[in-house]
Amino acid sequence: MKQHSQGLNILDLSYQVDGRKLLDRVNLTVHPGESVAVTGPSGSGKSTLLMCVLGLIKPRSGTVRVNDRDLTSLSGGRLTKARRELLGMVFQFGELLPELTPVENVALPVLLGGGDHEEAYRRAASLLDELGVPAGSTPTGMLSGGERQRAAVARALIARPAVLLADEPTGALDPEAKQDVAHLLFSTARHHNCALLLVTHDESVADQADRRHELRNGVLTEVGVGS
Ligand SMILES: Nc1ncnc2c1ncn2[C@@H]1O[C@H](COP(=O)(O)OP(=O)(O)OP(=O)(O)O)[C@@H](O)[C@H]1O
């Protein structure tokens, strides 16, 4: 019988570089509204795991399914379209355009995808409001680091993704902004019913996730929260 599953479903994912197994039959399910943090030594393959989910790296074997769609079987324009519809990504340094206003930055993915301008700007303003970012005419480059990361979370959510991926989203922030952004990231993902998969070196951020996993020598192991 075929099993249906919403959210993110990684099955037997393997990937190696120069003969080193970075991912060795990795399995992970993240349900809608649930958060999973992945920690592990530097160079253990955490970012590679996210790149495989995004389809930017082709795994050697295994599948990545989002809302029951097999992303690993897609390529070219179909992969780009599925990625735009199903996935949102927050990077360590926001990757926002500094000259644009926060609303323009957040609306951009929808506009580039040919979406309705008015609806995109309205939703961008609403998300920025929810995340407490000033949505005026100030260029994004003038905002504080924490405000820029909150704008990056808003941008990742603009297309109503099923899965939100975050790679060291608080890595460039001071301790106060870090806690603020981490809290908003977890609570907003839950509120929007996204499956959140987050990579971090920060124990205090990882502890806020519903579940924690560690990636070491290619093996992803569940660890107790707060241990
Ligand atoms: N295309 C590639 N060619 C060669 N080596 C690569 C390639 N991609 C990744 N690597 C290597 O694979 C390893 C895993 O990299 P990755 O960035 O996924 O680790 P990470 O766990 O996210 O590390 P960090 O915590 O330092 O960010 C590193 O040793 C990296 O140098």
TrEMBL record:
Pfam families assigned: ABC_tran
Keyword terms = ATP-binding, Nucleotide-binding, Transport
SMART domains on file? AAA
- Superkingdom per UniProt: Bacteria
Is-annotated flag, keyword Transmembrane helix?
Answer: no
Query: What residues form the membrane-spanning segments?
Result: none
What positions belong to coiled-coil segments?
none
UniProt KW Transport keyword:
yes
Please name the CDD domains in this protein's record. Answer: ABC_MJ0796_LolCDE_FtsE
Q: Which GO terms describe its molecular function?
A: ATP binding; ATP hydrolysis activity; transmembrane transporter activity
Q: Which GO terms describe its cellular component?
A: plasma membrane
Ranges for domain ABC transporter: 8-227
Q: What is this protein called?
A: ABC transporter ATP-binding protein
Organism of origin is: Streptomyces echinoruber
Upper taxonomic lineage: Bacteria, Bacillati, Actinomycetota, Actinomycetes, Kitasatosporales
